[in-house]
Amino acid sequence: MSEREHGHTHSHEHTRAVSNRLARAIGHLEAVRAMVEDGRDCSEVLVQLAAVRSALASVSRIILKDHLEHCIVDAIERRDQRAMEELERAIDKLIK
Question: With contact defined as beta carbons under 8 Å apart, do 83 and 6 qualify?
């Protein structure tokens, strides 16, 4: 969505932290792929996949918190019901 659609820019305080965490998760997932290709024990692979899932959940929490503190506060002030509906859909997909 563009700035015009939201009415504000997406400049959040946690952007760098999110980017760094995503880079680490990507690296970790690449390592898991290498484990699979090397024929490592399935139990070890599953443990590492759980770690990747946990890292992504952590990033999701940061993004959600940031979204609530910035975008949704702004949407409430502007009485933007569509933003609230989009948040509901996004949360539904996130926790599915």
Answer: yes
